[in-house]
């Protein structure tokens, strides 16, 4: 550990015990957090006032010393009061709409890492949460700790020595090397979580909205690592908190994994190719292969189930219901409703004819922004790596962990090719042909690498793609009206398709 925690040399701690004074601490921070939280990208309750906060736990990861010679680090889990109109965060520049059910309410638990210093250096001014006017941290600067490279490095140190600290528990994968004090930087531009990159060796993803149960972004990469699948970075270490109530499962708080230097994500590579009017077929083909490898490994490592008639009919019914709700909210969908319903009716017919499919654990939110590859011309070079197995962050954990048909992931990626092509300045017949070719190449790559050929199950693929496009319309209408034309062009295409499984 660093000198900051040495009992012999360190100054005495503040007259403050996290466990005993948690209530006083939260009271003094509530007003500051109520103003600060809604401004954070990862805060899901935008668009409505914060009803209130309750404290789930507070842990002094590094003591807040009286003389302030070293910054203190507090770990807080706070619960926001549930409210109406609970929306996913406003999308920034993302390849596909941030997932989640718009309008969903929630009793949300947030993870906060707060630094404490007497005075904040100018470089950290942007990270200030506020200065409590009373309570145990009276007059001190409380700030976003992950923005402070020093505190972010000390957090990394904590992973070297697995064990517990109050309600927190730190684990390390056997044999994983954790570097000493590499420079830390907080990544910008994310949606639902915060990630810190350490030098060029590791990246720590800190989940912001947490709930009881293992997060699939730890569960699936661990399962894949055990299965020997190298398409996904293997977790090096992770931390959890005890469940918020008696009998609830631990909550995954963050995952440390190897950083892949020099990579670009699929969205950057695809839009770069579009800007140069370059083909993306080879890149899409190998991305299809990578997806199939990950699906095959997941199907081998975790339970699967066969979906028969009743489950597939239920799926079709749920899709019909989502379309009904979306059409009520977005009148632009109305002219296409009957055409879109044909996609879901074809899925129900497929089920009635004895069609079936295997459900398994999936990525859950697969799109071009969730795959990385060494940067290079024409879609990059080398192996694709798949990241971010969290699933749709706004869906309940139990839903995200449910086995589903692999075609759901494939539909997500296919929609992403459309998104890339539609945002291209020269979008038009050439960009549409680019998207078609990329989509076909992706499906071929998937089938060649042993996945079930998505084009061989046209009813399933079309139903999932239609469902996704309907979701996108609802999302864009609410959050990014300037992007609405992207899913609407897919809606027109899908609604005009002939009924009997003729996908393209
Ligand atoms: N192992 C990694 N190596 C390099 N960059 C990574 C790695 N994991 C994530 N990133 C970068 O961090 C970004 C956000 O990571 P991601 O897991 O997708 O978080 P979020 O849930 O916020 O989308 C990615 O788009 C990518 O740029
Ligand atoms: Mg992501």
Could you explain how this protein is built, in words?
The chain is an alpha+beta fold and 504 residues long. It has two domains: 3-258, no CATH class; 263-496, Alpha-Beta Complex (Aminoglycoside 3'-phosphotransferase, Chain: A, domain 2). 37% of the residues lie in helices and 17% in strands. The protein contains twelve helices and 18 strands. The chain has helices spanning 18-36, 149-160, 216-226, 266-275, 281-301, 309-329, 337-352, 397-400, 407-423, 429-448, 458-479, 485-496, and strands at 53-62, 72-80, 109-117, 128-130, 141-144, 163-165, 168-172, 184-186, 193-198, 202-207, 209-210, 237-241, 251-258, 263-265, 305-307, 357-359, 371-374, 385-386. Strand 8 (184-186) and strand 9 (193-198) form a beta hairpin. The longest helix is centred in the C-terminal third of the chain and has 22 residues, at 458-479. The protein is globular, with a radius of gyration of 24 Å. Mean pLDDT is 87; it is low at 1-15 and 84-106. Magnesium ion binds at residues 369-370, 388. InterPro entries: Aminoglycoside_PTrfase, Kinase-like_dom_sf, Mak_N_cap. Residues 84-103 are annotated as: Disordered. Monomer. Belongs to the aminoglycoside phosphotransferase family.
């Amino acid at each position: 550990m660093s000198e900051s925690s040495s009992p012999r040399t360190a100054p005495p701690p503040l007259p403050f015990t996290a466990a005993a004074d948690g209530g006083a601490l939260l009271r003094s921070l509530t007003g500051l957090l109520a103003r600060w939280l809604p401004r954070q990208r990862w805060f899901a309750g935008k668009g409505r006032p914060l009803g209130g906060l309750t404290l789930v736990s507070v842990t002094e990861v590094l003591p807040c010393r009286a003389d302030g010679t070293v910054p203190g680090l507090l770990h807080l889990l706070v619960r926001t009061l549930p409210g109406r109109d609970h929306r996913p965060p406003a999308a920034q520049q993302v390849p596909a709409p941030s997932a989640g059910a718009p309008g969903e309410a929630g009793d949300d638990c947030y993870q906060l890492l707060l630094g404490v210093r007497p005075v904040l250096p100018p470089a950290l001014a942007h990270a200030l949460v506020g200065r409590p006017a009373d309570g145990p941290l009276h007059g001190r600067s409380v700030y976003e700790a992950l923005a402070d490279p020093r505190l972010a490095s000390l957090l990394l140190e904590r992973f070297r020595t697995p064990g517990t600290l109050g309600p927190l528990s730190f684990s390390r994968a056997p044999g994983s090397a954790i570097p000493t004090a590499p420079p830390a930087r907080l990544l910008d531009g994310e949606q639902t979580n915060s990630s810190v990159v350490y030098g060029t060796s590791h990246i720590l993803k800190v989940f912001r909205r947490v709930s009881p149960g293992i997060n699939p972004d730890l569960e699936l990469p661990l399962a894949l690592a055990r299965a020997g699948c190298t398409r996904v970075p293997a977790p090096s270490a992770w931390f959890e908190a005890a469940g918020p109530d008696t009998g609830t499962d631990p909550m995954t708080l963050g995952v440390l994994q190897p950083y892949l230097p020099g990579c670009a994500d699929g969205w950057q590579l695809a839009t770069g190719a579009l800007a140069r009017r370059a083909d993306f077929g080879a890149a899409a083909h190998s991305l299809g292969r990578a997806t199939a490898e990950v699906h095959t490994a997941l199907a081998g490592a975790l339970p699967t189930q066969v979906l028969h008639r009743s489950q597939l009919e239920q799926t079709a019914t749920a899709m019909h219901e989502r379309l009904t709700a979306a059409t009520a909210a977005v009148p632009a969908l109305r002219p296409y409703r009957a055409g879109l319903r044909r996609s879901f009716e074809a899925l129900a017919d497929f089920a009635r004819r004895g069609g079936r499919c295997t459900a398994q654990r999936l990525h859950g939110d697969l799109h071009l922004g969730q795959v990385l590859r060494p940067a290079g011309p024409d879609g990059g070079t080398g192996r694709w790596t798949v990241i971010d197995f969290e699933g749709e962050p706004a869906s309940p954990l139990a839903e995200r962990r449910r086995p589903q048909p692999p075609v759901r992931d494939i539909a997500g990626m296919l929609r992403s090719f459309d998104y890339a092509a539609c945002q291209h300045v020269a979008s038009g017949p050439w960009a549409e042909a680019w998207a078609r070719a990329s989509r076909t190449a992706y499906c071929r790559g998937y089938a060649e690498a042993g996945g079930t050929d998505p084009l061989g199950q046209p009813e399933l693929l079309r139903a999932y793609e239609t469902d996704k496009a309907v979701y996108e319309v609802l999302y864009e209408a609410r959050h990014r009206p300037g992007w609405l034309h992207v899913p609407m062009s897919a809606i027109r295409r899908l609604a005009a398709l002939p009924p009997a499984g003729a996908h393209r």
